[in-house]
Amino acid sequence: MPGSLRGAVVAIGNFDGVHRGHKHVVAAARAAAGGRPVVVMTFEPHPRVYFQPEVPLFRLSDAAAKARLLAGLGIDALAVLPFDRSLAETSADAFETDLLVDWLGAAEVIVGRDFHYGARRGGHVETLRQAGRAKGFGVVQVEALDSARGTISSSAIREALAAGDLDEANGQLGHAWFISATVIHGEKRGRTLGYPTANLRLDPACGLRHGIYAVKVGLAGRWLDGVASFGRRPTFDNGAPLLEVHVFDLNENLYDRTLDIAFAGYLRGEAKFDSLEALVAQMDQDSRDARMILDPG
């Protein structure tokens, strides 16, 4: 770690989604900094992926998105530790000494309520406090935040997205949930229906409810309005899940370009239509509904 960052206040966590609870932890680090640098320590891949590789994990933010979101919180550095066998088998004492003291030179460590560390989750907040007293760093535990439906957590946000509850998911996140992906070639059916789409393949573990959404599309520094379908296209092929995004009032070639798709509202579930005319009529209504959500004025 660069010498200019030694003596930092260090916030530690997985930070999947960088939700309001995570932002609260980083804000506590910044409040405690007093002019000292603020460093966020996180892990990639998510520890659950290491310990349970056979169980798909619906990530709220991939590594790049997580880094972007954390950078936007005004931190001085992001320390991403590879979560591999070596780290998984690191003892709590070695984590404290080798990483927090020798590598980071941490002056203060900020963690959330359920923080554990070290092999077999042997370390917790109280052992960290004891280590801090012995090894010369302070420890602050930040309490969880609540939403109207309970404690804010990545798990609760995944559940809300799986239910198509964008209000709850985005409320807990403190920003619109978004994905970033590269536009691929599709069947080009949309343009024949008057609705050209940008097709994006999401992580197979994505647990977002299949259906139609009002979206904002980030493209080359612009945010554009659009409507999107995520699902298996039951009217046509019932194939692998695909995100198909129609950007309103845009006439550009988007192939091979990377887009940010921010989900603003859930419109309806995926449905099979008996005719293309019925499908287009519904797409017209979906577009009107999406525009109302995105620009209610």
Low-confidence stretches: none
Task: Give the overall shape.
Answer: elongated
Tell me what portion of residues adopts beta-strand conformation: 25-35%
**Residues in helix, %:** 25-40%
Strand runs, count = 15
| Strand arrangement across the biggest beta sheet | 10-11-14-13-12-15
Describe this structure in words.
- A hairpin with a 2-residue loop joins strand 12 and strand 13.
- This protein has a 6-stranded antiparallel barrel.
- It is 32% helix and 27% strand.
- The mean pLDDT is 94.
- Helix 5 packs across helix 6 and helix 7 runs antiparallel to helix 8.
- It is elongated.
- 32% of the residues are buried.
- The chain is of the alpha/beta class.
- The chain has 10 helices and 15 strands.
